[in-house]
Amino acid sequence: MQKGFSENFLWGGAVAAHQVEGAWDVAGKGPSTADVMTAGANGVARKITKEVVPGENYPNHEAIDFYHHYKEDIQLFKELGLKAFRTSINWTRIFPKGDEETPNEAGLQFYDDLFDELLANGIEPVITLSHFEIPLHLYKEYGGFKNKRLIDFFVHYAKTVMTRYQNKVKYWMTFNEINNQADGQHALHTWTNSAMLFEAGDNAEELTFQAGLNELIASARVVKLGHEINPDFQIGCMMAYVPAYPYSCNPEDLMAAVKVMDRRFFYSDIHARGVVPNYAKKYWEEKGYHIELSPEEEADLAEGTVDYIGFSYYMSTAVTTLPDVKGDVITDFPGAKIVSNPYVSASDWGWQIDPVGLRYTLNTVYERYQLPLFIVENGFGAYDELVEGEVHDSYRIAYLQAHIEQMALAVNVDGVELVGYTPWGIIDLVSFGSGEMEKRYGMIYVDKDNQGNGSLKRLKKDSFAWYQKVIRTNGTEA
Ligand code: BGP
């Protein structure tokens, strides 16, 4: 028995438009970068194919067909007791190419209906504006967010939906896991929010900083604008927090960990404080990077700081400079490596399971910004076994339980201000990283496999009844 949470704590669940909706080309929707990602699956990383290639891009094309099943899914969410449901708006349902003036009414209507259905069932929508996809046209014609014109297109899109849904949605987030472009894995940027098209001779790191900054400017303008549309809006950022621990107490390991974390904090430092941090300016100077930021844009950053920090937490990692420890070299930090932590176990995908790391993260982020926090993703991707219509996912319950316990300590012992908790993939969905259906996170099972076969039937897993009780007892019986 542990101390619970405030009365209005938002117990919920999270998904993203392209990982659940399917219906990728109906009712006037245009193709997005997510629609041209290869299937991946079985350990093969996903790639972007500039055009739709029949058979190659199937996971997001049908996904779990939430577009046509949302009413029955919301009944299950209601039964589960959800108070909040996080999803994203698919930009290409609203602006099929991204650079149009006039929105697509059928796309706007779909989200009107979805939000009405949630509200009618007592569930608060929590909405991300861009969750790892942008219109394909903006990627191909403009090169993605390295191009400043994307700022205006994004602001126009945000203004359109924030105006339309001003009385239905209160909690917004601008860019999903905006800091996932920070790890020197520049190849990935073709398919995160910045979706950059690189050309020969481009300096990927410099352009990544520029694209990230352009997104931050767009986000700040949207925060300002959103507050004009409805002063009650709560507009947050969305970060992936993966704490990097020093592998040893060698002071060099500690400094390496600080530098790795600076790179990830860069985004929330600007979102929350409204200024470019000195460590970034110094780094750009040292590298001779020319990052464009006009005085007007600088003012936007300062005036458009976020109301809360939304973040995902799945795992922690460790960093070392010790030459004899094996690990993955970090290209941006010569001499430092990411290594596995011998004190924690890992999932089948190598994600290190570390519940205490969540309490640590809640503490460090709260100390850094003094803003309310919102855990908008946390969960355990696993292979589930369906036996006679049942899934006994005790491993998922154990993971979530341990994280909720640490969350309770952060709130009740450490005094962290926490708005809510929306575990990832409340219903099975397409894995973003691998393109697999069979890397499952849900408390609701969906009958579909990695090859795209299955009846799409929904079934409650054991974790369903467990989470129902957690919500009913407000976390005292997790
Ligand atoms: C986050 C993303 C989600 C989601 C999740 C799990 O990074 O915001 O979109 O997919 O991670 O990752 P994966 O699907 O690769 O298991």
Automatic annotation (TrEMBL):
Belongs to the glycosyl hydrolase 1 family. One of its GO terms (molecular function) is beta-glucosidase activity. InterPro entries: GH, GH_1_N_CS, Glyco_hydro_1, Glyco_hydro_1_AS. NCBIfam families: PRK09589.1 (NF007154). The active site is at E377. PROSITE patterns: GLYCOSYL_HYDROL_F1_1, GLYCOSYL_HYDROL_F1_2. One of its GO terms (cellular component) is cytosol. It comes from the Bacteria. One of its GO terms (biological process) is carbohydrate catabolic process. This is 6-phospho-beta-glucosidase. Keywords: Glycosidase, Hydrolase.
